């Protein structure tokens, strides 16, 4: 055994070379040990740092917070941890993935360990610094991918505006928000007039072009907080936050004009398109957002009954008209 | 394997072990939070994992939301500690950050993780200390802890743990009553362990009983 024992201190050498940052602080925050990982990444050699106060050697460290963290380990005689998810790093080190990384610093997990004799109180704290850059990058990519998926699942494939799934969620959350914090919002439901005739006369590709073009025209007129989505077939919904009924009606009128003014061109053929619109506003006491959908539907029906290419605001007496249809 | 319930004597002994172990936890938390913290005598029991969702739902309130942190431990005992805070607990900790200038720098998550880490460290570390003092256990009784992480935020208590996905069948369940800044709230510490770990604890309890 003695013949094969190495001529150097095993533990010391391992600590020196292990691919984890290891340093030790005494109660005065003087560095007692500083391994190669720390030296190589910080550019500060072991002999340059050992014996110095950590915060004097590294003035950029978050001193009050880290002091408290280390003191807690001394006092509680318990492990402590720092996660990159809460604080990206303790030391701002460059990382070694300049090409594949997309991060400009090393993400770090840290573990703080009280060092003591068998039954004694901690005399020093060992800090281990783990490179968590790979995990952080993978997690960020995953997050982006999930955001993309969620964005795609909220979009209508043909027109690129929101789909019915998103509209329902958004109406529901807008309804809850208004009920909780006050304010108001309006909803517009509109429908292309005689859309079946467009499909029958010019073909379904022409119909698709009309849907895309009308969606784009309306979207271009929206404020950033407004929402447009395709409710189904040739039906569209607009959600206008912080907009009372009269504002919504004027806005609907402008949209109607914008659609009716210019025909949609398909294969050099101009196709005349008009829309019929129903407008309603949120009111305190509405049982749920479905009431808004119902009211805008009633108003839309009234626009159709009035000869199409027009805007109608919901009023209770319109219900009779719809019931008689 | 189906573990028989603890006898009354065993339960009393386990309760006693936990009391001593958690005695220091209040002081530790006060140090961590810079606030007076009162921890009442914890209640402890062994629960089959399959019963955890209804038991937790009953303890926390069926429709109440909870947040939880998890931390694994290994060594003399191995397993996973889950520390569960109900809405009042999270609120109290969040408010604490608002009052405390220096803690304000902490993220709320970091504070939750710190408190979880101190709780599981105090509970398991304290237990190990009692084992060293009072039993004939030979060999290393050391425990190592891994980094804690957030397990869930704002979920229904009954949905926190899916027994179908837990490979271990029993857990130690510890209920801790906190008082911070005159506000009372309860945190639950759940320690999931493989069967041999639970049996080990039963052995320790029996030795503990024999020592007195």
Describe the structure.
The complex is a heterodimer of chains A (325) and B (212). Chain A is α+β, with helices and mostly antiparallel strands and 325 residues long. Chain A folds into 2 domains: 10-140, PAS domain (Beta-Lactamase), CATH 3.30.450.20; 154-323, 2-Layer Sandwich (Alpha-Beta Plaits). Helix content of chain A is 43%, strand content 20%. Chain A is built from 12 helices and 12 strands. Chain A has helices at 10-17, 36-42, 46-49, 54-57, 63-76, 133-153, 164-181, 195-202, 204-220, 245-261, 289-305, 318-323, and strands at residues 21-26, 31-34, 80-82, 108-115, 124-131, 185-192, 227-232, 235-241, 264-266, 269-271, 275-281, 311-313. In chain A, the strands form 3 sheets. In chain A, strands 2-1-5-4-3 form a 5-stranded antiparallel β-sheet. A 5-stranded mixed β-sheet of chain A has the order 7-8-6-11-12, with helices on both faces. In chain A, strands 9-10 form a two-stranded antiparallel sheet. By secondary structure, chain B is an alpha+beta fold. Chain B has a single domain, classed as Chemotaxis protein chec. Chain B is 43% helix and 29% strand. Chain B has helices at residues 8-33, 52-60, 87-99, 108-134, 195-210; strands at residues 37-39, 43-48, 65-75, 79-86, 143-145, 149-156, 170-180, 183-193. In chain B, strand 3 (65-75) and strand 4 (79-86) form a beta hairpin. In chain B, helix 1 (8-33) crosses helix 4 (108-134) and helix 1 packs across helix 5 (195-210). Chain B is globular and about 45 Å long. Chain B starts with 7 loop residues before the first helix and ends with a helix.
Question: In percent, how much strand structure appears in the residues of chain A?
Answer: 15-25%
Q: What's the CATH H-level homologous superfamily of chain B?
A: CheC-like
* Mean pLDDT value of chain B: 78
Could you give me the name of the CATH homologous superfamily of the largest domain in chain A?
Answer: Reverse transcriptase/Diguanylate cyclase domain
Number of domains of chain A: 2
Could you please say which CATH topology of the largest domain in chain A applies here? Alpha-Beta Plaits
Known CATH architecture of the largest domain in chain A: 2-Layer Sandwich
**Overall 3D form of chain B:** globular
Spans of chain A of 5+ residues with little confidence (pLDDT < 50)? Answer: none
Distance N to C terminus of chain A: 100 Å
Q: Class of chain B in CATH?
A: Alpha Beta
The pLDDT mean of chain A sits at 91
Q: In which range does the helix fraction of chain B lie? A: 40-55%
Q: Judging from the principal axes of the Cα atoms, what is the shape of chain A?
A: elongated
The CATH class label of the largest domain in chain A is: Alpha Beta
- Quick one: how many beta strands of chain B? 8
């Amino acid at each position: 055994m003695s013949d094969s024992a190495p001529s150097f201190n095993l533990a010391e050498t391992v600590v020196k070379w292990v691919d984890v940052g290891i340093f030790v602080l005494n109660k005065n925050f003087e560095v007692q040990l500083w391994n190669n990982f720390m030296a190589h990444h910080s550019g500060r050699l072991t002999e340059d740092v050992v014996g110095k106060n950590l915060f004097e050697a590294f003035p950029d460290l978050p001193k009050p917070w880290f002091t408290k963290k280390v003191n807690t380990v001394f006092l509680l005689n318990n492990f402590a941890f720092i996660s990159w998810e809460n604080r990206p790093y303790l030391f701002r080190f460059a990382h070694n993935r300049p090409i594949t990384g997309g991060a400009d610093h090393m993400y770090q997990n840290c573990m703080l360990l009280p060092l003591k004799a068998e039954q004694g109180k901690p005399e020093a704290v060992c800090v281990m610094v783990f490179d968590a850059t790979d995990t952080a990058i993978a997690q960020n990519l995953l997050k982006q991918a999930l955001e993309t998926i969620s964005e795609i699942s909220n979009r209508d494939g043909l027109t690129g505006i929101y789909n019915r799934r998103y509209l329902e969620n958004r109406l529901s959350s807008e309804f809850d928000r208004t009920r909780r914090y006050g304010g108001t919002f309006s909803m517009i439901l509109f429908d292309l007039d005689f859309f079946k005739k467009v499909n029958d006369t010019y073909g379904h590709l022409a119909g698709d072009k009309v849907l895309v073009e009308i969606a784009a025209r309306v979207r271009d007129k929206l404020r950033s907080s407004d929402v447009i989505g395709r409710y189904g077939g040739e039906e569209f919904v607009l959600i206008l936050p912080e907009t009372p009924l009269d504002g919504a009606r004027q806005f609907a009128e402008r949209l109607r004009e914008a659609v009716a003014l210019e025909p949609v061109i398909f294969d050099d053929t101009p196709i005349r398109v008009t829309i019929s619109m129903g407008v309603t506003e949120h009111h305190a006491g509405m049982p749920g957002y479905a009431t808004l959908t119902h009211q805008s539907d009633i108003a839309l029906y009234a626009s159709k009954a009035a000869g199409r290419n027009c805007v109608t605001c919901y009023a209770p007496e319109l219900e009779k008209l719809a019931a008689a249809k | 394997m189906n573990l028989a319930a603890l006898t009354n004597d065993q339960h009393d002994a386990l309760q006693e072990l936990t009391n001593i172990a958690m005695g220091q936890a209040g002081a530790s938390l006060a140090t961590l939070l810079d606030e007076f913290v009162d921890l009442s005598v914890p209640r402890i029991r062994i629960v089959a994992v399959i019963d955890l969702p209804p038991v937790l739902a009953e303890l926390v309130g069926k429709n109440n939301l909870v947040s939880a942190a998890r931390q694994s431990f290994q060594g003399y005992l191995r397993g996973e500690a889950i520390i569960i805070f109900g809405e009042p607990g999270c609120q109290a900790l969040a408010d604490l950050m608002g009052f405390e200038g220096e803690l304000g720098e902490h993220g709320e998550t970091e504070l939750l993780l710190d408190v979880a880490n101190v709780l599981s460290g105090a509970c398991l570390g304290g237990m190990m200390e009692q084992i060293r003092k009072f039993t004939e256990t030979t060999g290393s009784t050391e425990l190592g802890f891994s980094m804690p992480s957030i397990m869930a935020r704002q979920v229904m208590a009954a949905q926190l743990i899916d027994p179908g996905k837990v490979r271990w069948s029993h857990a130690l369940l510890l209920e801790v009553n906190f008082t911070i800044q005159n506000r009372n709230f309860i945190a639950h510490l759940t320690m999931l362990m493989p069967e041999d770990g639970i049996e080990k604890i039963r052995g320790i309890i029996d030795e503990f009983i024999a020592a007195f």
